Each structure stands twice: as C-alpha cells, then as structure tokens.
C-alpha cells in the first residue's frame, strides 16, 4: 500500500506509523499484522523519558466532533495480543481501546498514556470479535464497546493534552503482540459519524 491510503468509509486519509504492518483493505475489511513483541506502552514502573515501545498503526486526522466505529476480529495467539482503536495526541499522550487476550480471556481493555501508561480491564468478551467506538467532542474523548454494534457499553471518558492538541488528534487502527510471535487483526463494519454520542451511559 502507498504511504497514504483512503478507505471509502472515512472522510480523511490514513497513513502508517510505527513498524510495518503490511496493511491491506479488501471487501470492506482492513487487515493489519503486528510482529513479535510489538506493543505501544510505557510501563508505569519505568522511566517516563525512555522511548515508548511501538506497534503498527494506521492513523488519520478527523475534523470536529466524531465517532469512529468498527468491528474487530483478532487472531489471538498469545497473552495481550489485541486489535485496537488508537488515539494519538502527542508523543507522550495517547490512548488505546483494545480487544485483548488479557491474559487468557478476550477482554475489552483500555490504556491512557500521560508520560506513563495506565492499564484497565473493562469486561470479558465471548469470542474473538467485538465492536469498538472512539468519540470526540472538543477536548474530550470517550470509549465504548459492544457485542452487537447496537447496544454500547460505556468504558471511559477522558481528556488528553490541551484542547487545541485534542482537536488535532490522530485516530485509527493498531495491532499489537507484546509477548507473542505476532498477531493479525481485521477491522470491518467501519463507520464514521460527524457527531458526539447523544448519551454516554444509556446504551446508544
């Protein structure tokens, strides 16, 4: 794929970041591959000045309020393998909404990095796929997940960086395999909405 690609579902182009994932798009499914021991994380117990580990990302810059929705299916092979919706504000401020094998059951997990990364599990998923949604209004972001793409479970709301930085954030897709030999994830049912959800906690 070229350095800049366009998906028909999105009003902005995407560019690859981090290690090569050999991203492909076919029949409505975006597929990416993470290599062995690839992750995007800054351990809370480590030095915040050390370089963050990295994993393949495909990101673009939406304008204004938005929702980015996808169904992700992950080829789990090892603990912490994941397909991810990723948010990048600065080199030390970014966040992940993951369907992750954590460590032995598929789980909705989130990471928000402000110098160091935090790490929180939300709920266990039945199977190897789930729906993920990241939303923005102004300087605020929200994460939701769903088993069917209809009823959404609120996961967290947070701010990153200044309002100006948040409004210029990059968003998109990531694949990780922190301790494994590699992982493949497919993203389909991709949808973009130029709005903030009507209710964060009412399932809509």
TrEMBL record:
Quote the Pfam families the UniProt record gives.
DUF1349
Fetch the InterPro entries from UniProt.
ConA-like_dom_sf (IPR013320), DUF1349 (IPR009784)
Q: Where in this protein does the record put region Disordered?
A: 37-58
The species this protein belongs to is: Streptomyces formicae
* The protein, known as: DUF1349 domain-containing protein
User: What is the phylogenetic placement of the source species in the record?
Assistant: Bacteria, Bacillati, Actinomycetota, Actinomycetes, Kitasatosporales
